[in-house]
Amino acid sequence: MAEAVAKFTFVFCCFAPVHLLLDFWCDTMGAFLDKPKMEKYTSHGEGNSLKFGLSSMQGWRVEMEDAHTAAVSLPHGLDLWSFFAVYDGHAGSQVAKYCCEHLLEHITTNPDFQSALQEETCVDSVKNGIRTGFLQIDEHMRTISEKKHGVDRSGSTAVGVLISPTHVYFINCGDSRALLSRAGAVHFFTQDHKPNNPLEKERIQNAGGSVMIQRVNGSLAVSRALGDFDYKCVHGKGPTEQLVSPEPEVYAIERCEAEDEFIILACDGIWDVMANEQLCDFVRSRLEVSDDLERVSNEILDTCLYKGSRDNMSVVLVCFSGAPKVSPEAVNRELELDKYLETRVEEIMKKQGDEGVPDLVHVMRTLASESIPNLPPGGELASKRGVVEAVYNKLNPYRNDDTDPDILFFRGFS
């Protein structure tokens, strides 16, 4: 196993993007498992002319620190409103779990938000109410933590959407991300809160901190988050002026029923390996072959794992009535692609002859060197790893995934 880990580490360090290398270097090897946990929590639902599917997976991390919220038809007179969010915890899961259970209540019941609904809904007042809810829950968690067992050192990003009959309110605090696909393209996406962003860096320095290796004081990789109270104790500074701010950025986008397709909410474990356009194109292609949003969400996680993500992963997919529909032509192309891959895997394995059964890495590298038509855009060959592996396992039933270093290495192959 040590040889396997060493092999993975060497290849990962040679080919991984710089931001992943920084995270890998800053985390100890003890923060990762010998192999990823691929079991998933999934859910789906519908209401208010929306459909959603979600999936989360622990992956390579020792603990699962993500959480999520999915609610349609909200209480307090908000029957036609819906709320979805992803929380990416760090240094523990406590803050993420608490926010998943209570953030929505803090938003919808605070006086600023309620006053915005008393007459004709005011967009700016709703945005202010959302901001107030974030500041309230952050202070509330600090008070609870100090009274019960001292300061909780965990924290969490939060990205969400509050969907009214007329607007989508995008809410972001940290480096998780949300995007809106409209009329076949990325129409809007939230901006990540990273310590080296000019305005974030200025606030950190004004609070007496520094940004080293793209982290707050060389430690925390996000500049805004809920919790993280060790970074929120600078005397003379308000809550939004601390080293780490709990203040969300809120954007109001007017809905367009004819063109709005879907919203993706995901933690940075997804965005580490998929760009906005890539993920948008991939989801669109998957919706053309399946209307099962849980299945589509699962495919996102598996594809990102095979592209090299080493983090917890969570995604919520929210579809409007204008989302792509299943196309018989797309379904046929998918079936033909799967059959082609199955045939090629058999050919590659038979070609070895006296050299013995090739490992899965060799099979994937051979396929990657070829021009294969109709691979899912954005996902490419990584999104078909399951098909390739199924054929490989059928033809090589005596493999040992747990001890073969090449198989372990491939789990980081992209």
TrEMBL record:
Key words, A-Z: Cytoplasm, Hydrolase, Isopeptide bond, Lipoprotein, Magnesium, Manganese, Membrane, Metal-binding, Myristate, Phosphoprotein, Protein phosphatase, Signal, Ubl conjugation
Catalytic activity: O-phospho-L-threonyl-[protein] + H2O = L-threonyl-[protein] + phosphate; O-phospho-L-seryl-[protein] + H2O = L-seryl-[protein] + phosphate
Membrane topology: Lipid-anchor
EC number per UniProt: 3.1.3.16
Matching PROSITE patterns: PPM_1 (PS01032), PPM_2 (PS51746)
Tree of life domain: Eukaryota
InterPro entries: PP2C, PP2C_BS, PP2C_C, PP2C_C_sf, PPM-type-like_dom_sf, PPM-type_phosphatase-like_dom
Localization annotation: Cytoplasm, Cytosol; Membrane
Family listed: Belongs to the PP2C family.
Protein name: Protein phosphatase 1B
